[in-house]
Amino acid sequence: MIKVVTAIDSFKGSVSSLEAGYAAKDAVLSVYKYAEVVVMPLADGGEGTVKTLVSGMNGKLVKAEVTGPTGDKITAEYGIIGNTAVIEMAAAAGLPITPVEKRNPLYTTTYGVGELILNAVENGCNEFIVGIGGSATNDAGVGMLQALGFEFYDKGGNSVKTGGKYVADITGINTDNVNSKIKNCKFRIACDVDNPLCGKRGASYIYGPQKGATPEIVEFLDNALKSFSEVTKNKLGIDCANDEGSGAAGGLGYAFRAYLNGELKPGIEIVLDEIGIDKVLADADFVITGEGRIDSQSAMGKAPVGVAKRAKKYGAKVIGIAGCVADDAYLCNAAGIDAIFAVTDKAMSLEEAMGKETTKKNIRKTVTQIFNLIKTFE
């Protein structure tokens, strides 16, 4: 009896990770009636990770009223799996939920991210997976820290306001009133960039413009982050501004590292560890992975290649499927995916190709033929 593991990322705008996985499972079982087929949820730590992990690991979704990036109250959603909270910072401080006319990192805040963490703590969570992509902020995570009870003062002894502009005013730090439960929490941060906090490759220069920062604002914010890191170093003895990922999400990566002892890792690695994929891969014969489009970017650490690298440790054959396979997708072969197949088998409109039922049908047809071929070699 053969064992097949499916770990397929969502085909965005079409099918979820589990819908793709179960379509592939149906196909395998149509060829190998008695095969063991294990369907695993897959995400890369970015958008969609909360819903994917919650649905795939029998968790629950929780809604909370928090402070949005522009200071207005919004409703944000996160997931709870056992004692682990899965949070996408973009749900509380993301660019997509920030009106274009209000996109200005001088004033946007991560305060709501801290409120989500507190809500999860009150719901019994002490472990966190936090995806930090898609931010609208450049406040070095100060807003989040303020929500958790960290206090920041200007030279006059006044509490600083929220927003990137006021990070420049910070000269004093008080940690006495931090929520006591936070000290017992473990934070794993899904971070797929290696930017430091400051400088030409830092948070402000690389990501500030897309959040509404002019060149003058970029320079101001970069100096503010430098100042804040120096204050942190002098007051708390913590120096991690140059660590890889500290510049992620407008410096939120730095806040997690410096103030919450967070561990920054590629999102796919955190997800694969959380779902316990190594255990099911250990005796797998074949692994089916994929995503909506496979191309050279996939080879640079996206979800399917993350799966393939784990699978290769155990000697499994890895099959990649996608709605679209680009000309440079062959680069993924060297990264561990043995063969790659497009599931779209005839000319059709983009709207038709992305239809949920069409995609599931195409996955079943393609995977059936792949395993028909495999069977001929027995």
List keywords for this structure.
378 residues, alpha/beta, 6-stranded mixed beta sheet, 13 strands
Structural overview:
With 378 residues, the chain is of the alpha/beta class. It has 15 helices and 13 strands. The strands form three sheets. Strands 3-4-5-6-9-10 form a six-stranded mixed β-sheet, with helices on both faces. A five-stranded parallel β-sheet has the order 2-1-11-12-13, sandwiched between helices. A two-stranded antiparallel ribbon has the order 7-8. A hairpin with a 2-residue loop joins strand 4 and strand 5. Helix 1 packs parallel to helix 15 and helix 4 runs parallel beside helix 5. The radius of gyration is 22 Å and the shape is elongated. The model has no long low-confidence stretch (mean pLDDT 96).
Low-confidence stretches: none
Largest beta-sheet details: 6 strands, mixed
**Percent range of helical residues:** 25-40%
Give the H and E element order: EHEHEEEHHEHEHEEHHHEHHEHEHEHH
What's this entry about, in short?
With 378 residues, the protein is an alpha/beta fold.
Reconstruct the topology from this structure:
Layout: E1 3-8, H1 17-31, E2 36-40, H2 49-56, E3 60-67, E4 73-81, E5 84-88, H3 90-93, H4 111-122, E6 127-131, H5 142-148, E7 151-153, H6 164-167, E8 172-174, E9 186-190, H7 203-207, H8 215-236, H9 252-260, E10 263-265, H10 267-275, H11 277-281, E11 286-294, H12 303-312, E12 317-325, H13 331-334, E13 339-342, H14 350-353, H15 356-376
Helix pairs in contact: 1-15, 4-5
